[in-house]
Amino acid sequence: MQKDCLISYGGNQYSVPSEYAGKDVAVVALDNLLAVYHEGKQIALHRISYQKKDMVVNAHHYRRLTVKQSFDIENTLLDGDNVIDFPIQPHDLSRYDEVLL
């Protein structure tokens, strides 16, 4: 498995939990499911995508990467399914410069 937490199967990429990055895994395809195992333990289960060059990702597989390492506090920013970026408008601060001078 690659360091990006993705494995390749059938022309597509599938995620596995980040703690298994760089480790050897076994992949088993049954019907429309793809199961990934490490040392006999199932670590991921995905529906097989029949589109080529598809990327099938489970956000929870990357959860460990969003934990602040020094305190083991989870970063809740990525908990939701959709992350919304609200742009911040710049403000004119020249008036404050006039007051201070």
Give structural notes:
The protein has 101 residues and is mainly beta. The chain has one domain (6-78). It has one helix at residues 94-100, and strands at 6-9, 12-15, 26-30, 33-38, 41-47, 55-56, 67-68, 73-74. It has a 3-stranded mixed β-sheet with strand order 1-2-6, with no helix packed on it. A 3-stranded antiparallel β-sheet has the order 3-4-5, with no helix packed on it. A two-stranded antiparallel ribbon has the order 7-8. A hairpin with a 2-residue loop joins strand 4 (33-38) and strand 5 (41-47). The longest helix is centred in the last third of the chain and has 7 residues, at 94-100. The radius of gyration is 21 Å and the shape is elongated. It starts with 5 loop residues before the first strand and ends with a helix. The relative contact order is 0.16.
Task: Present the secondary structure layout.
Layout: E1 6-9, E2 12-15, E3 26-30, E4 33-38, E5 41-47, E6 55-56, E7 67-68, E8 73-74, H1 94-100
Parallel strand pairs: 2-6
Antiparallel strand pairs: 1-2, 3-4, 4-5, 7-8
Essential attributes:
mainly beta, three-stranded mixed beta sheet, three-stranded antiparallel beta sheet, 7% helix, elongated
- Class by SSE composition: mainly beta
End-to-end separation: 60 Å
Low-confidence stretches: none
Main sheet: strand order = 1-2-6
What's the overall geometry? Answer: elongated
